[in-house]
Amino acid sequence: MSTSNRLHAVNVVAKIKTPAPCPAAPVPEINFAEDVFNIQTMKSYLPKGSCQKLLSTIRQGTPLNPEIAGDVAHAMKQWALERGATHFTHWFQPLTGSTAEKHDSFLDFEGEKAIMSFSGKNLIVGEPDASSFPSGGLRSTFEARGYTAWDPTSPAFIKRHGNGATLCIPTAFCSYTGDALDKKTPLLRSIQALSNSTRRLMKCFGLPDEKVEITLGAEQEYFLIDRNFYLQRPDLLQTGRTVFGAPPAKHQQLEDHYFGAIRMRVLNFMTEVEKELWTLGIPAKTRHNEVAPAQFELAPLFEEVNLACDHNMLVMEVLRQVASRHNLVCLLHEKPFAGVNGSGKHNNWSISYGKRNLFNPGDDPDQNAIFLTVLCAIIEAVDRHADILRATVAGAGNDYRLGANEAPPAVISIYLGDQLKEVIHLLETGSGRTSRKAGSLKIGVDTLPQLPQDATDRNRTSPFAFTGNKFEFRAPGSSQSCSGCNVVLNMIAAEAFDRISGVLENADKKDFNAVLQKELRAIIKAHKRILFNGDGYTDDWLSEAARRGLPNLPTTLDAIRTLTQDKNIALFEKYGVFNRRELESRYEVSLEDYLRRIHIEGSVALEIATSMILPAVRGEYEKCVRALAEAKQADVKAGMQAVRRDAEIFGKGCDDLVVQTATLRKALADKQDEIIPAMQALREVVDQLEKVVPDDSWPLPKYREMLFIY
Ligand code: ADP
Ligand code: MG
Fold this sequence. Notes:
With 710 residues, this protein is an alpha+beta fold. It contains 23 helices and 20 strands. The structure holds adenosine-5'-diphosphate and magnesium ion.
């Protein structure tokens, strides 16, 4: 970059007009879900009979009656046309990590006459030519056809763009043979499994049959940077993260960004994001500055898990799109900047039965017995299957984050807080009282301990924390779909519920309490090793976890291997979530994705180092050498020492760059395992040079420019 370009980069922020604050205006009418074909809309657009049939599919999960498809399609089309839609698309979630859509217009002909048409078949099933989506070998190209199938439990919505709109129909995506090729299908299967198992367990407690709803609130972290900087960073453009960059003198040390006053430019962006999300029926609720400079968070109110997963995909898309309208770029990568915090996604997960949240300690002893049973089941589930839960958050981006003392470690453990820990201890030892006085509750079984109500402790270092009425899984990466971890949470909870139900169903009614108590005690004894309330960031914990025999799977490669172990395949098959073929294909897809991403990062690092950094450093070296020669000729002595020192520094920098780029080039050619260490070694050289090369000769925008938005 020339000097003038560099100044351009530095000054560009100054040129952006900060919008003037609006004069106080009344709160506008909220157009919540205006662009969603939701139940309310269905009621006004659909014939009554069809509407009732559709609602029973949505609410009770009864199989979809194909006869109503024509009516629903007609109503949806009417509604969409009124909103300016000209096209429709089946909207789905292939294994690429993002969403996919192939648009068709409503245009058709009746004889000579152009009409807008959308049939029941158009609604229910699509056949995108899907040969280019990752399938991990599930589909050979000669039968490349993939099918998308309408998911009536997630409402259709309209995506608007500058001069038009598209009707989007959430769908599952599978192969000709019925194998899942997407993230929604296994999620729906796991919801089914956990719903059945929850009903079975609740029946043991004598509760009437009720609807099970699994709920998710996904907190989304992200970075924003000025678009002009982004465009000058080939690494950000190509990989979503900076492969070089020295931390600025001040970044997050003063902890002054977290929850700080939000800058006007960012607030304007956030407000537009929220308005757009509300229109799409996404209940955006909380916004705040996060720990790192230029890092932020958006949290919606929780919703049913399938809908919440779809909505989180849309949240990521809206964040990106609105950012570009504000001349910003939203970075969803887990670790865009080294040396400051990375971004995660907190997966707040719970199960409700009828109106009752099963993770909420109740008001009376019977409810608390249910709560403790469910709690113990989750402890058992997570301890038994920590390996596959870890695998669900594996990925090249998250590897830079997990265990980097800013995110929970790659070792899965459960945080319960001191109060619940004590309750669990009393449950195990069989004594019935807690030492806590305030707000204690009685549990149904006399000898079960009393339960304190205010479990409000916070521990940010735990990957899986009980937070009062839900579990918060904090390991997912910011760019990942929520589907993966919820599939596994649902399935492993289902298994534990089923096992406990098996025990309780065999108990005599009069012995029920004693059997339950014995069972819970046995669970705690067998699985308490997974409970850890301390600081998850310390090395002590890693050694302690090893002593306890908890799996530590630090990298993606370690983690995803567990997916194809026989015991895990058997579990996925038992619950109908994945068959062996599907699991093997997912392993292949994850592996390839990981290897390719690392290869791309390495190639980008090599290219930047060779074509941008080395020429810049050599330029400085040459300037010094010329200056030395000229000074000698002119017989000037002063300054020679400083120039000679700089010549040595830049000369050595060039030599080091040549060595480290050669190592990286070789790793890229044939030593995949060595790409990451080679990138790291190259980065150390480059980041040191960034600090000594004159600012106006450095070819990349620096962290201190990018990380502060004005
Ligand atoms: P934090 O302190 O982690 O920010 P919040 O109380 O703000 O916690 O909640 C975070 C998320 O948890 C929100 O998205 C919220 O809607 C969600 N949440 C609350 N209750 C439930 C629940 N029963 N099931 C799932 N998510 C929930
Ligand atoms: Mg949280």
